[in-house]
Design goal:
The complex is a heterodimer.
Chain A lengths: L1 H7 L13 E2 L11 H13 L4 H27 L14 H12 L2 H11 L9 H22 L25 H34 L4 H9 L7 H34 L11 H27 L8 H31 L3 H13 L3 H13 L7 H4 L2 H28 L14 H24 L5 H6 L15 E2 L1 H5 L14
Parallel strand pairs in A: 1-2
Helix pairs in contact in A: 3-16, 4-6, 4-10, 4-15, 5-6, 5-9, 6-7, 6-10, 6-16, 7-8, 7-9, 9-10, 10-11, 10-15, 11-12, 11-13, 12-13, 13-15
Chain B lengths: L23 H24 L2 H34 L6 H11 L2 H7 L6 H7 L1 H16 L3 H11 L4 H5 L12 H29 L3 H28 L12 H26 L9 H32 L2 H9 L5 H19 L3 H4 L2 H23 L3 H4 L9 H23 L13 H5 L4
Classes of the chains: A mainly alpha, B mainly alpha.
Chain lengths: 497, 441
C-alpha cells in the first residue's frame, strides 16, 4: 500500500499516524517455515523409524484389541446375558459406549466440513488427524449395537435387504434411522478423508524408493500429478463433499437423540435433545482431538504447525459447547419443574439429588460444565497440562452424560416393583476398555503410514501463498504484543529455516 | 477478484455520516405509518372494551414481540462477530449496533403489557393469581395457599401451584422483575458495545476491539438466557400448561434469521443512496446470504425437531400447542410456514450467483421478513380465539393486528433509521476495517 499512500495522502493524511491501525491475524505456522520444511517434517513421520514411545503405546493397544475380541467372542458363545443389562435396565454400557464413540466421531467432520465452509483456515493443521479419529471412533461405536443384537451373524437384517424369512425393518423406528444415519456418516466421512489424502499420498509416493510402499501409495494416489486440472477437480469435489457432509454432522447425533426422545420415557422425551446431542458430540469430539493432537505434536515436533493458537481455538470451542451443554442440562431441569409433570421432575430429582446414581450426575455436570470454565482464563488455554486435564475431564464427563441419560433413567421405572440398580459386569468393562485399545491401535497405524497433517492444505495458509502478502505486517500489530500477554509465544523475528 | 484493494487513504476520515434527508422517503414512510399506527393503537387501548380490547392486546404482543426478535437478532450478530474474532463484518457492524440499541424505544412500547387490563385477556394464569391474591388478602393467607385452595375446586389450577416458584406476579423474581431484567440486560449489552465501538472511532485504540470481544464472550450466556426466558414469559405462558425445552432455541433461530434479512435490506438501501460504496462489496452480500441460508436451515432443523418429537411421542399436554395450530384455517398457515419459511428461502438461497445480487436478495429478504411475521403471528394469535371464548379466530381482529404492527414497526423503524445519522455508518478506525473491506471468501 505504500506506493498508493504516497500519492493519496494529501488532503486527508491521517491525523492519527504513528499508532498501529491494523490488528494482524496470528500466523498459523510459526517460525516462517518453508514449503520444503513442512513436506519433510510431515513425511518424515511416515518415512523414519517410529520413536520408542510409539511402540510403548502400540503393543498395549494391540493387546487391548485382543481383549476386546475375546470379550466379544465370549459374548457370542455365551449370550448377551454376560453384560449387566437386566430388566428394567435394558440399555446400559453398550448404548452408552455407542453414543460416546459416535459423539467423538463428530469433531472430524465438523472440522473438515463446517470449518471449511466457514473459512476457518486454522483447521488445516488438525483436520486430517481429526477425520481419521472420526472414522476410527465410528468403527468402535458400531461394534456395540452390532453385538447387542445377540446373534451378530444376523446383523445384516438391520439393512432392508429382501430375505427368505420375509422380515422387514420397522421404518417407523428411530433405531433403524440410526443404522442409516451412522452408516451414511461413516461412508461419507471415509470418502472425504480419502479425497483429502490423495495429493499427500502422491507426495509420499514420489519420495519413496521403489518397492511395496511406493506401489501402495501409487495405487491410492490415483495417478495424482499435481496438475492444475487435478487441483481444480479436487477443490470442486472437496467443496461439494464439505457441503454434503455438513448436514450429516448435524443429522447423525440428532437421529441418535431420537432413539431416546421419541419415546415417552421421562428424562428421555424432551424437545431440546437433537441440538443438545449435537453440541455435546462436538464438545466431546474436540476434547478427543486435543487429547490426541497435543501428544502427537510434542512427540513428532509439530508445534510450529499445531500452534498455541490452534489449541486456544479448540479450547474456546470446548468452552462454548460445554456451556451450551450446560444450558441444555439446565433447561431440562427447569422444564422438568416448569412442566409440572411429577414423573419428569422425579426423574431429574433421582438423577441429581437422591437417586442411586447421583454420583454419575455430579461427574457429568462437573466434568462437562464446570471443568471447561477454566478456559475463560487465557493462561489456562495456553498451559498444555491444564488443557489436557480439562480434555480428560470432558472425555470422562461425556461418557457419564450418556450413562446418566441411559442407565440411571431406566434404574427407576414408574412402578417401584421394577426398580433395579444397574451394575456393570467384567465383560462390560473389558469390552469398553478394549475399544480404547482398538481405537488407539488404528490411530497409531494411521500415524505410521499416512501423513498426519494435510501437507497441501497447510501450505495454502502460509503467508507466502497469499498474493496480498506484501500488505501485511507493515503497519499492523499482533494482539499478543499489543496486550503484552505474559505467555506470549510468537517469536516474531524468528529466523527462517 | 477484480476490485480495488482498499486502504485507509481511500476512506473518508471519520467515516461516512448518514444524512437522513437523503433517505427521507423511506424514513418519512416509516414515521407516517408509525404515527398512524400509534394513533390507532391509542384508540384501541383507550376507547374499546371487552373482546375488541382483548383481541387488540394480542395484536400488541405480536407486534412488540416481532420487533423484539429483530432487535435481539441485531444484538446477537454483534456479539457473535466480536466473540468469534471475525473480520468480514466490521463494515456492517455499526448497523447491528444501532439496531440492538432500539431495545430502549421498544421497552417503552412494551409498557402496555405491564397493565393488568392488557394482561387479562393474554395471560390466563395471571387472572388466577390475581384472584388468589384477592382471596389471600381477605383470608390473611399467602397467595400460594389461596391458589392451592382454589385448585381444590378447579383441578386445572394444580398445574399453577406446581409452577408457582417460577410463574408468579407477587413474589421473588416474579414475571414483572424478569420483564425489567430482560430489557436491562439487552440494553446493557447493546449500549456497552456501541459506546466502545464509537469510542474507537475517536481514539482509534485497538484495545477496544479486544475488550469488545471479551465483553461479548462473557455476555453471550446472559443474552441466551434472556432470549430464552423472555420467550417463555411472554409467549409460552399464553398457554400456561404447555412447555418445550426447545422453545428458547426456536425463538432465537427466528431472531438471527430475520435480523440478517433486515441487515441485507438495510445495506442494499444504504448503498443505493451512495453510502458504504468502498467498504461493502458483493463479497459481503455473499457472506450475509450464506449466513441467512445457514439460519434458514437451522430454523427448519429446530422447528422440525420440536414438532417431530412432540408429534411422535403424542403426549396430551404437549400436543395441545400444535393441535391449536392445526385447527381449521390455522392448519393452512402451518403448512404455509413449512413451505414459505423453509423450502422457498432454502431453494432461493442455494445459488452463489443469487446471493451476490442485491436485487434478488432484496426480494428474498422481504419474503423472509414476511415469513417471520407469519411465524410470530402463528405463535401468538391462535391462542386468542380460545382465550376470548369466541372460537378459533376473532372476526375483524386483523384490523387491530395491522394497526399494532405498523404502530410498533413504523415507530421503531423510524427511530432506527434516524439513529443511523448519529455516528459513522461503519466503525471507521476499527483495526479490522480493511480486512472487512477487502474480504474475499
Amino acid at each position: 500500500m505504500s506506493a498508493e499512500a504516497a500519492t493519496h495522502s494529501h488532503d486527508h493524511a491521517p491525523a492519527y499516524s504513528g499508532a498501529p491501525r491494523i490488528l494482524d491475524r496470528e500466523p498459523l505456522v510459526l517460525n516462517n517455515r518453508s514449503y520444503s520444511w513442512i513436506t519433510n517434517r510431515i513425511c518424515g513421520i511416515v518415512e523414519n523409524k517410529q520413536p520408542l514411545l510409539w511402540w510403548i503405546l502400540f503393543v498395549p493397544s494391540v493387546l487391548l484389541t485382543g481383549l476386546m475380541a475375546f470379550c466379544f467372542i465370549y459374548l457370542i458363545s455365551t449370550g448377551v446375558g454376560v453384560w449387566g443389562q437386566k430388566q428394567p435396565v435394558a440399555w446400559a454400557w453398550d448404548i452408552t459406549n455407542f453414543v460416546f464413540w459416535i459423539g467423538i466421531g463428530h469433531a472430524g467432520t465438523l472440522i473438515s466440513a463446517i470449518l471449511f465452509l466457514t473459512r476457518q483456515k486454522w483447521r488445516t493443521s488438525v483436520n486430517r488427524a481429526a477425520e481419521a479419529m472420526t472414522i476410527f471412533a465410528v468403527m468402535c461405536a458400531g461394534l456395540f449395537p452390532a453385538f447387542h443384537v445377540g446373534r451378530v451373524w444376523m446383523v445384516w437384517f438391520l439393512a432392508p435387504i429382501p430375505n427368505a424369512n420375509a422380515i422387514w425393518q420397522n421404518f417407523k423406528s428411530p433405531l433403524l434411522w440410526d443404522v442409516f444415519a451412522v452408516s451414511t456418516y461413516f461412508s461419507v466421512s471415509a470418502v472425504f478423508w480419502f479425497l483429502g489424502l490423495v495429493p499427500d499420498l502422491a507426495t509420499l509416493r514420489d519420495r519413496c524408493k521403489p518397492g511395496l510402499r511406493k506401489t501402495m501409495y501409487g495405487i491410492f494416489s490415483l495417478g495424482w500429478r499435481g496438475a492444475n486440472r487435478h487441483w481444480s477437480h479436487y477443490e470442486t469435489a472437496y467443496m461439494l463433499l464439505a457441503a454434503l457432509s455438513t448436514p450429516l454432522v448435524l443429522s447423525v447425533h440428532s437421529v441418535v437423540s431420537f432413539d431416546f426422545a421419541t419415546s415417552i420415557v421421562p428424562g428421555w422425551h424432551t424437545t431440546i435433545f437433537p441440538p443438545y446431542f449435537v453440541a455435546g458430540a462436538i464438545f466431546g469430539g474436540f476434547a478427543m482431538v486435543l487429547t490426541l493432537m497435543i501428544p502427537v505434536s510434542k512427540i513428532y515436533g509439530l508445534s510450529d504447525l499445531i500452534t498455541p493458537k490452534h489449541i486456544d481455538n479448540m479450547a474456546k470451542i470446548i468452552l462454548l459447547t460445554g456451556t451450551i451443554v450446560g444450558y441444555a442440562y439446565s433447561m431440562e431441569f427447569f422444564v422438568a419443574y416448569y412442566s409440572a409433570n411429577p414423573f419428569e421432575l422425579q426423574t431429574f430429582m433421582l438423577r441429581g439429588l437422591y437417586g442411586p446414581s447421583t454420583w454419575a450426575y455430579y461427574f457429568m455436570f462437573g466434568f462437562n460444565v464446570f471443568a471447561p470454565q477454566l478456559f475463560w482464563y487465557r493462561p489456562f488455554r495456553h498451559n498444555l497440562w491444564v488443557v489436557m486435564l480439562v480434555c480428560m475431564c470432558v472425555n470422562a464427563g461425556m461418557w457419564f452424560e450418556r450413562y446418566v441419560i441411559i442407565a440411571t433413567t431406566l434404574e427407576r421405572h414408574l412402578i417401584p416393583g421394577s426398580w433395579r440398580t444397574y451394575e456393570a459386569t467384567w465383560v462390560d468393562k473389558y469390552t469398553f476398555l478394549g475399544t480404547f485399545g482398538f481405537f488407539m491401535m488404528l490411530f497409531l497405524l494411521f500415524l505410521r503410514f499416512l501423513p498426519v497433517i494435510a501437507i497441501g492444505e497447510v501450505k495454502g495458509v502460509l503467508p507466502q501463498s497469499n498474493a496480498h502478502n506484501h500488505d501485511h505486517g507493515k503497519e499492523g500489530v499482533q494482539e499478543e504484543d499489543l496486550m503484552a500477554y505474559p505467555d506470549r509465544h510468537v517469536p516474531r523475528e524468528a529466523a527462517a529455516v | 477478484m477484480g476490485h480495488h484493494h482498499v486502504t485507509f487513504e481511500d476512506l473518508p476520515q471519520g467515516g461516512e455520516k448518514f444524512e437522513p434527508a437523503k433517505g427521507g422517503k423511506l424514513i418519512g414512510a416509516f414515521g407516517a405509518l408509525g404515527a398512524l399506527g400509534l394513533a390507532g393503537s391509542a384508540y384501541f387501548f383507550l376507547f374499546t372494551k371487552d373482546n375488541v380490547f382483548g383481541s387488540f392486546a394480542y395484536s400488541w404482543l405480536f407486534a412488540v414481540f416481532f420487533a423484539f426478535t429483530i432487535i435481539c437478532g441485531g444484538c446477537f450478530w454483534i456479539m457473535l462477530h466480536n466473540a468469534s474474532n471475525s473480520g468480514w463484518g466490521v463494515a456492517i457492524r455499526r448497523l447491528w449496533e444501532q439496531l440492538a440499541n432500539m431495545i430502549l424505544p421498544l421497552a417503552i412500547l412494551s409498557i402496555p403489557l405491564l397493565i393488568p387490563a392488557v394482561q387479562k385477556p393474554l395471560y390466563e394464569w395471571m387472572n388466577h393469581h390475581r384472584e388468589a391474591h384477592h382471596h389471600a388478602v381477605e383470608a390473611g393467607t399467602s397467595v400460594y395457599e389461596a391458589l392451592h385452595h382454589m385448585a381444590e375446586s378447579n383441578p386445572h389450577l394444580h398445574v399453577l401451584t406446581a409452577k408457582y416458584g417460577y410463574l408468579n406476579i407477587y413474589e421473588g423474581f416474579s414475571w414483572y422483575s424478569r420483564f425489567a431484567f430482560y430489557f436491562f440486560v439487552l440494553w446493557f449489552i447493546a449500549s456497552k458495545l456501541r459506546s466502545r465501538s464509537v469510542k474507537q472511532d475517536v481514539d482509534g485504540d485497538i484495545k477496544h476491539t479486544i475488550k469488545a470481544r471479551q465483553f461479548s464472550c462473557t455476555w453471550l450466556l446472559f443474552f441466551a438466557l434472556t432470549v430464552t426466558f423472555a420467550a417463555v414469559d411472554w409467549v409460552q405462558t399464553l398457554d400456561y400448561a404447555w412447555f418445550s425445552t426447545m422453545w428458547g432455541v426456536y425463538i432465537f433461530a427466528g431472531c438471527a434469521w430475520s435480523s440478517m434479512a433486515v441487515t441485507i435490506l438495510l445495506v442494499t438501501w444504504l448503498k443505493s443512496l451512495g453510502y458504504l460504496k468502498q467498504v461493502v462489496t458483493e463479497e459481503h452480500f455473499h457472506l450475509m446470504g450464506k449466513l441467512l441460508f445457514a439460519f434458514t436451515v437451522f430454523w427448519a432443523y429446530i422447528a422440525f425437531s420440536q414438532y417431530f418429537l412432540i408429534w411422535y411421542a403424542n403426549i396430551t399436554e404437549e400436543t395441545r400447542f400444535y393441535l391449536t395450530r392445526n385447527t381449521e384455517g390455522w392448519r393452512y398457515v402451518s403448512i404455509f410456514i413449512v413451505v414459505g419459511h423453509f423450502v422457498g428461502p432454502f431453494l432461493a438461497l442455494l445459488s452463489q450467483a443469487r446471493k451476490k445480487k442485491p436485487f434478488v436478495m432484496v426480494g428474498v429478504c422481504l419474503w423472509i421478513l414476511f415469513m417471520h411475521v407469519v411465524d410470530l403471528y402463528w405463535l401468538v394469535i391462535p391462542e386468542r380465539g380460545p382465550s376470548l371464548s369466541v372460537g378459533v379466530t376473532v372476526a375483524g381482529a386483523w384490523i387491530g393486528d395491522v394497526v399494532a404492527f405498523i404502530g410498533v414497526v413504523g415507530t421503531v423503524g423510524f427511530l432506527f433509521l434516524r439513529s443511523l445519522a448519529n455516528y459513522s455508518l461503519y466503525p471507521c478506525r476499527d483495526p479490522r476495517l480493511l480486512e472487512s473491506a477487502n474480504v474475499i471468501n
